[in-house]
């Protein structure tokens, strides 16, 4: 039986998934995907293209609203569909933030704040330590409460976060909690999935989004659609 290469090499693009001996057949047909979340069949439409039948580029996930200008790759749809399913299962729960933002302390006034601001400008409620942890309170306790009161989690993977995870700091504790609950979308920024896998093979095996392929604003637009009901 062929073995999936995702835990080692990742499925960051259509070509990467197509090269996997275990997944290339089903990936090419888009007939479903099986993971630790269970089996599911992502539902999406495709943008019109030239020519006859067959698969057209620009797959659109079922949660993307009609007329949306946000574009997705096939890999994006596969990566985000299981997280959307979890979000939908928790959407009716009261008093929850849409997103828990895990980040390195060093990024709190830089990339993490940029992503937070981009999300909130699109109507997404974000748990962000810079605004949600009051002076004099226990940071670990507040993080624990924030995780419990958020529907899904995103982790901003930067060089600073990789350094923190190596040192087993607070960011590492947040990651462990999010990974245990299968609520995590990694957002790779100014680093690579290869560098992430060197530090955390489990997190590195998760499909997510990357700012090397699109802007932070484009990533935030996808996340905003992901957590909109």
Note down, in words, how this protein is organized.
With 229 residues, the chain is of the alpha/beta class. The protein has a single domain, classed as Rossmann fold (3-Layer(aba) Sandwich). The chain has twelve helices and nine strands. It has helices at 6-9, 14-18, 24-29, 74-90, 111-120, 129-132, 139-148, 159-166, 170-180, 193-199, 201-204, 216-226; strands at 33-35, 38-40, 44-46, 59-61, 97-102, 126-127, 150-157, 184-188, 209-210. The strands form three sheets. It has a five-stranded parallel β-sheet, sandwiched between helices. A two-stranded antiparallel ribbon has the order 1-2. Helix 5 links the parallel strand 5 and strand 6 (126-127). Helix 5 (111-120) packs across helix 12. The N and C termini lie far apart (40 Å). Residues 26-57 have low confidence and may be disordered.
Concise overview:
The chain has 229 residues and is of the alpha/beta class. The protein contains 12 helices and 9 strands. The strands form 3 sheets. It has a 5-stranded parallel beta sheet, with helices on both faces. Strands 1-2 form a two-stranded antiparallel ribbon.
């Amino acid at each position: 039986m062929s073995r999936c290469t995702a835990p080692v090499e990742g499925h960051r693009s259509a070509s990467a998934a197509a090269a996997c001996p275990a997944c290339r057949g089903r990936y090419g047909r888009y007939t479903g995907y099986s993971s630790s979340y269970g089996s599911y069949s992502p539902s999406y439409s495709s943008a019109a293209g030239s020519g006859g039948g067959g698969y057209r580029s620009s797959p659109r996930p079922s949660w993307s609203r009609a007329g949306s200008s946000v574009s997705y790759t096939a890999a994006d749809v596969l990566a985000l569909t299981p997280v959307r399913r979890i979000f939908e299962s928790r959407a009716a729960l009261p008093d929850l933030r849409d997103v828990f933002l895990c980040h390195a302390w060093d990024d709190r006034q830089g990339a993490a704040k940029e992503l937070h601001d981009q999300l909130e400008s699109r109507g997404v409620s974000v748990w962000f330590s810079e605004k949600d942890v009051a002076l004099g309170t226990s940071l670990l306790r507040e993080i624990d409460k924030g995780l419990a009161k958020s529907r899904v989690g995103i982790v901003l993977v930067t060089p600073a976060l990789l350094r923190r995870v190596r040192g087993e700091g607070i960011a590492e504790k947040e990651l462990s909690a999010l990974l245990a609950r299968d609520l995590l979308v990694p957002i790779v920024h100014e680093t690579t999935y290869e560098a992430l896998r060197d530090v955390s093979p489990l997190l590195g095996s998760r499909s997510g989004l990357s700012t090397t392929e699109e802007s932070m604003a484009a990533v935030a637009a996808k996340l905003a659609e992901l957590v909109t009901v």
